[in-house]
Amino acid sequence: MERRRFLLFLVALLCFAGLLEASPGDADPVYRACVEQCEKTGCVGDKCFQHCNFSSEGNPIDGPWYLQEPLYLQWKQWDCRSDCRYHCMISREEERQKLGHKPVKYHGKWPFKRSYGIQEPVSVALSALNLAVHFQGWVSFFILVNYKLPFRPNKKTYYEYTGLWNIYAIFAMNAWFWSAVFHSRDVDLTEKLDYSSAVALLGYSLILAIIRAFDVRLEAARVMVAAPLIAFVTTHILYLNFYQFDYGWNMKVCVTMGILQLVVWAVWAGVTRHPSRWKLWVVVIGGALAMLLEIYDFPPYWGLVDAHALWHATTIPLTYLWWSFVRDDTEFRTSVLIKKKK
Ligand SMILES: [Zn+2]
């Protein structure tokens, strides 16, 4: 009964994900006109930006020849755009606040106030902490597997999923690294890197969930699980980067992949006799609750802490517990396999 209720809750989550749309802030014609104007003139009201010294053809008005390199020009254009977006957003939000309107999102994000040039200091710090916890978890897993547990006669580990968890650690640390970069400065490039890394991590962890929960040990069967998912995730990343950066669609893809892996782990935690299955339960329930924060997104308090930042905070203890489960799983599988051999 309990399990059925939990699954219903997950299905409800999935339905709400269908209601999500792209950000209304950047669809606002006043904001759009402001950014367009700013990219031409380099000014919002009486504030002007040094990165926007462009003539209408996109050539810099001044500066020596070496500053006219295409790469540097592009970088400057990115910076100009991000300054324009930021100041247009702040001025638009001030106008809206006077009219008594609630904050809206711009380009998938709430209007944050920068501090020391960092856009979302809280999210940056939390992303860095997530990265650190993953690194610590991975190192302890690595030490356990390579120095504490016995090897098979062919010098391989008894645990069948060692390589998969090592790759997982790399995907996870990569994603948190780009998350920290993106939250400190939101430009097209950092945004694409962050979103792409997050999608890659979600896709890979879904593959890992299926392979571990269903105990897929045959190489051919693993390929059959992984290939369609890798194809889908790759297509999705290419679509985001080179065709259309669609926040609403990306959110649906991410939430669906996230819920699918939670369901896989939850079902497994329900049927397995694994000694550490309670850790799985905590991570699954905690992960589902944390996902609610990502879905029932609220605007930042004091221009600093929003639902997304809190979501990054909740993943820290969950990650710690997660790697502790991985270590338990390693010891459990190793002891089972050694017993079988004797
Ligand atoms: Zn983030």
From TrEMBL:
GO terms for biological process: GPI anchor biosynthetic process. It comes from the Eukaryota. One of its GO terms (cellular component) is endoplasmic reticulum membrane. It is a multi-pass membrane protein. It is found in: Endomembrane system; Golgi apparatus membrane. The chain crosses the membrane at residues 124-146, 158-181, 193-211, 223-243, 249-271, 278-296, 308-326. Keywords: Golgi apparatus, GPI-anchor biosynthesis, Membrane, Signal, Transmembrane, Transmembrane helix. It holds the Pfam family Per1. One of its GO terms (molecular function) is hydrolase activity, acting on ester bonds. Residues 1-22 form the signal peptide. Coiled coil: none annotated. Belongs to the PGAP3 family. PANTHER family: PER1-RELATED, POST-GPI ATTACHMENT TO PROTEINS FACTOR 3. Involved in the lipid remodeling steps of GPI-anchor maturation. This is Post-GPI attachment to proteins factor 3. It comes from Sesamum radiatum (Black benniseed).
